[in-house]
Amino acid sequence: MKKFFVLALMAALLTALPATAQKIYVNGIDPNYPPFAYVDEKTGKPSGFDVESMDWIAKTMGFQVEHKPMAWDGIIPALLGKQIDMVCSGMSITPQRARQVTFSESYWQVYRVFLVRANANLSPQSILNGKEMQIGVQRGTSEANDIMQEKKEKGYEFTLRFYDSAPLAVEDLINGRIGAALMDDLPARDALAKGRPVKIVGAHGDSDDFGVAMRKEDEALHRLINEGYRRLKASPYWKELQVKYLSK
């Protein structure tokens, strides 16, 4: 009788345990980069195109993912310092970043645009040539690095003002503290969709490819993410995400 009780107890304990413990990966995100990644004001939870994409990939590929909001200009140091395991948050693939991290295959392409107040009579060239022009840009981004380099090389006299997020630059633009803001096209269109009194006046520079950043030594994760995106792009859910977040 005692032997039967012990065997039954062991069987119950084994049944209660998960068959396999899923690996948990932490994804660092920009908390204010709609529509790709942001913290939802109503729920207080991470949301966006990249967040939901990675949630689907995690479920499909058999791991768990936690999304950790953090300052964008410190996100690669956080990755290298193993505070997070990946950055799936609208990160452009650039040679400078690729020297420090490895990227997944590109999953999206964006263009940079100038945003100005709705009643402004400005063009990209007049913005760049304006001696008293103040241009807002998010610190730590590829567009910030590129326009700083362009200013140096071409001798432009505009002034750059740096922000923690593109929406903060939009607020200062509306309030007249800056004359223009440079950002990716989808965050700019997100501002338009929300009824902000601004307009897009033209593209700037080349397009950017977005990829997921990981540590170079995490080769298994690299393969996992690439396969996850291949499956996601072959799924109807990929189109659903585009309609939900990117069709504004």
Give a short synopsis of this structure.
By secondary structure, the protein is α/β, with parallel strands linked by helices. The chain is built from 10 helices and 15 strands.
Protein model, in words:
Helix content is 41%, strand content 23%. The protein is α/β, with parallel strands linked by helices and 248 residues long. The protein has two domains: 14-109 and 209-246, D-Maltodextrin-Binding Protein, domain 2, CATH 3.40.190; 112-206, Periplasmic binding protein-like II (D-Maltodextrin-Binding Protein, domain 2). The strands form four sheets. The protein has a five-stranded mixed β-sheet with strand order 5-1-6-15-7. A hairpin with a 6-residue loop joins strand 3 and strand 4 (46-47). The N and C termini lie far apart (69 Å). Mean pLDDT is 92; it is low at 1-7 and 13-19.
